[in-house]
Specification:
Shape: elongated
Number of strands: 12
Structural class: alpha/beta
Distance between the termini: 38 Å
Strand content: 5-15%
Helix content: 40-55%
Radius of gyration: 34 Å
């Protein structure tokens, strides 16, 4: 390993230690890693499904969403960044990726669209709710408001229905994908669920902050659906728990059904149970409509609910805001393997398992004591110290591989930058003679190569590389013969005369003995004219093709090669040199830099 290689290796080590979360998670390598998982799960290799990473640490920033073609994940979201180690933060992002992928696989968007559209138009789908107890009176009042096409009532109920149905759907699709892919997706989803439960304000805290009654109930439902428990550290015993207990049977009957209509049926009945808490929202929206437009009133309502209901992610949307189509792979999974319901205790166990994973990393957020809904006691939390993990062993190696890849790319970019500075310094120190006195020379070298140059090279290189191979077959035997050593005759210069060759009129009368261990004294340099005249008759195109053949030829035969381009942009700018290939370049991107050659 020469000094340049050692220098690059040290740079890679340094970059690995100093690489930030933002640099790692927004790198193309990490985005490709998450994209590959989403494509593999959905089978959409040719339809452009892609995971795109963003970085926004502001409060209220989006966590994740998908538009059916791209999954957008905010790597700076407060849930992911609350984990104490980079390993856990990476698994959290994989969990968000899994959640959005699960929507594309298992959400019946056709049925969902019918439901939301019906609510907007004043009708319940698949059927209106009905009760045989104290909720029937309120239910009839709610149905009457819908039948009268009261715009405010329809708008408010539609927004509330969207949140309730989304809560139920989130739990179903996460359980489904965890069963189908019990590795990285499952681990990440369970970690995120645990953290979102920990970050959920306590019931008393929500009351103190004057959350709307409906928002408090939505949070209780979400907490119960996700973990089978609620955060009730202060021992609240008021009506919220009574309403929740009445909602639980509808939740448990529908939560894990493969037929989305069952969850929509449950959502309709939950709206009926919570009607007394929805009516104040309707009146508040009605008051706002006196001073604002219908769209603005809807945005204000959604903004309030969105800020008070914690832990949910928006439903996917397709082109023009329309809902996407469910992936065929998900439909096949649902038909081939009907899902089995998970009782509350299993959901609690999943939370405990996730706690054990985080506890190994340290600095876990302190959990509040919880209350079980069905039996009314306070069992608290027990820790399963015998937990052996999910069985997925590649999470750490995946992250290490990506981390090393990103660090290598950054180190190579730094190395290329330093090389450019050294080349510029060398150019400044060269004495060009009186004819070039006062002419400034600028050396240009790309520190990183964009993907489009790589793709361009790969599209045109194959026939040129075949030419290179034919040339190699001709020259390789001569180089091998020379490397084996021996007496070299008929040289044009040297220290020893061959008296038997003095009659040569071309001056080839020197001789030299070459040792096998002697370093090869051969290098190739190519300077390409990139002035405007080279654009005529495809000259620059043929020059680029020649450079590609020559570079591959030299690299294959281990002959040092450097390739430059030069031009004079204008009189004031002086001479511009473009470094495409360097003798001591260590990365493998010089061949792609040649594609940037232009006149």
């Amino acid at each position: 390993m020469n000094s340049n290689q050692k220098k690059l290796q040290q740079m890679i080590k340094d970059q690995t230690l100093t690489l930030t979360d933002e640099e790692l998670f927004l790198s193309s390598a990490y985005q490709k890693y998450l994209s590959s998982m989403a494509k593999a799960a959905t089978g959409r290799y040719r339809q452009g499904l892609q995971t795109l990473m963003e970085w926004d640490t502001s409060s209220g920033a989006d966590v994740a969403y998908t538009d059916n073609y791209k999954i957008h994940i905010n790597a700076g979201n407060h849930i992911t960044q609350s984990f104490p180690s980079r390993m856990l933060r990476s698994e959290s992002l994989a969990g968000l990726n899994g959640h959005e992928t699960a929507h594309l696989l298992f959400t019946d968007f056709t049925t969902l669209g019918l439901y939301l559209g019906s609510m907007d138009n004043g009708a319940f789908y698949p059927e209106p709710p009905s009760f045989d107890d104290q909720y029937q009176t309120g239910c009839e009042e709610m149905l009457e408001a819908m039948q009268e096409k009261d715009k405010v009532a329809c708008l408010t109920l539609s927004r509330c229905a969207s949140h309730i149905s989304n809560i139920l759907e989130d739990i179903y699709i996460e359980a489904r994908i965890c069963e189908a892919f019990p590795g990285t997706f499952k681990q990440g989803i369970e970690l995120n669920s645990m953290r979102m439960n920990e970050l959920m304000p306590s019931l008393q805290s929500q009351i103190d902050k004057e959350y709307s009654d409906f928002s408090i109930m939505a949070n209780l439902l979400l907490q119960y659906c996700r973990a089978g428990t609620i955060n009730n550290l202060n021992g609240y015993t008021g009506p919220y728990l009574d309403y929740l207990e009445d909602c639980v049977p509808y939740v448990e009957e529908s939560l894990y059904s493969d037929d989305m209509k069952d969850r929509l049926h449950a959502a309709n009945h939950i709206l009926g149970i919570l009607w007394e808490y929805i009516k104040p929202l309707i009146e508040d929206t009605r008051e706002k409509l006196q001073n604002t437009s219908e769209d603005e009133a809807e945005q204000l309502l959604e903004g309030m609910l969105g800020s008070q209901i914690h832990g949910g992610t928006p439903l996917p949307s397709g082109k023009g805001g329309n809902l996407p189509k469910q992936a065929d792979e998900g439909k096949e999974m649902q038909k081939a393997n009907p899902f089995t319901a998970l009782p509350p205790q299993e959901r609690q166990n999943a939370m405990l398992n996730a706690q054990d994973v985080v506890a190994e990393e340290g600095n876990r957020i302190q959990l509040a004591k919880t209350s079980t809904i069905l039996d009314g006691n306070n069992p608290g939390i027990t820790y399963n110290h015998q937990y052996l993990g999910s069985g997925y062993e590649k999470s750490a190696s995946d992250l290490f591989r990506i981390l090393n890849s990103v660090a290598t790319a950054k180190a190579e970019e730094q190395y290329q930058q330093e090389m450019t500075e050294e080349l510029q310094k060398a150019a400044n120190d060269i004495h060009y003679g009186n004819a070039h006195a006062g002419i400034h020379v600028t050396v240009n070298r790309m520190c990183s190569v964009p993907d489009y140059l790589i793709q361009s090279y790969q599209s045109i290189a194959p026939p040129l590389l075949r030419v290179s191979k034919r040339l190699q077959k001709t020259i390789a035997p001569l180089l091998k013969e020379e490397s084996e050593g021996g007496k070299l005759k008929n040289l044009q210069f040297g220290k020893r005369l061959d008296t038997r060759a003095l009659h040569h009129e071309d001056g080839t009368f020197f001789t030299r003995t070459r040792l096998p261990s002697e370093e090869q004294k051969l290098a190739v340099g190519l300077l390409i004219d990139e002035s405007g005249s080279m654009s005529s008759a495809d000259r620059i195109t043929y020059a680029r093709m020649t450079a590609i053949v020559l570079y591959d030829f030299c690299q294959s035969l281990q002959i040092p090669v450097t390739i430059y381009g030069h031009t004079t942009p204008d009189c004031e700018a002086g001479v511009a040199l473009y470094s495409y290939a360097e003798f001591d370049s260590l990365d493998t991107s010089d061949r792609y830099r040649l594609m940037d050659m232009s006149a």
